[in-house]
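ZP: hey, is the fe (ii) ion complex queued? I don't see it on the tracker
AM: it wasn't, my bad. submitting now with these inputs:
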Amino acid sequence: MFGTFNEDASSLDEYLGGFQFYLDLYLKQGPNGSEVHGPPDHWITETDWKIAAENFAGDGYHTPVAHQFGFNLGYFPSSGATHSQGWAASITGKGHGIGLGHTPGFTPFAGFPDDLTEEIKKSLTPDQVEVFSNARTAVGTVFPNLSFLMQPFSLIPGETGVRFVTMRLYHPIGPGKCEMYSWCLVPKDASDEYKEAAYQAYTLTFAQAGTFEQDDLENWLESLAWQSHRPQRTSSSRTSWEWKLSATKTSAAPAT
Ligand SMILES: [Fe+2]
């Protein structure tokens, strides 16, 4: 649900500027669309909302590094070498962006419920079917602070697994402090069994205590800690690693 108190605001369609085309991958999972499954996750972190928003808008390249354990354990139906292949799209002048990961040979729409795949295709336009057929992963941000991620996740290594979706909102509550909300979206027409499997995959990965969420948060915290201690450029500058050590020591020091 979107709303505004600004009577002069543009319509949602105008604001999205065509980005709805991509949002349908998350929100139109079948004839009756998508629904929230399980309670929302809600937590507060000491990072900047812009880091998280940017991470989802166009930082697909971090995955094989920050989440390498996921490949080693077989959670991803792609390899570290192919995971960053695909396409990126952004809406000029609007700030919305999405990355679509593509694994050559990956079965189109794999990970969706088998009995629902054809219905999902019918809910989409031919252009969307063509684009989404090639999308293993979709991770994007609606400017400024709403992000989505869809990813097949193998609860049993080697299998395609199920597609989970996290829809998340970053709510800045002060300098370096951010309130996070995350919801798990599932196809409304899917079986209870599929919804639970998708929710389990979501919980293990990108819910509040999800393993991948913790990977990302560690980087976001480190980025902010380093940024806040970034020195002015001088002729006798120290290396970034030295400044990182300095930042870590400072943030760990007891309050006085
Ligand atoms: Fe990540």
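AM: back. The longest strand covers residues 162-174.
ZP: great, adding it to the tracker
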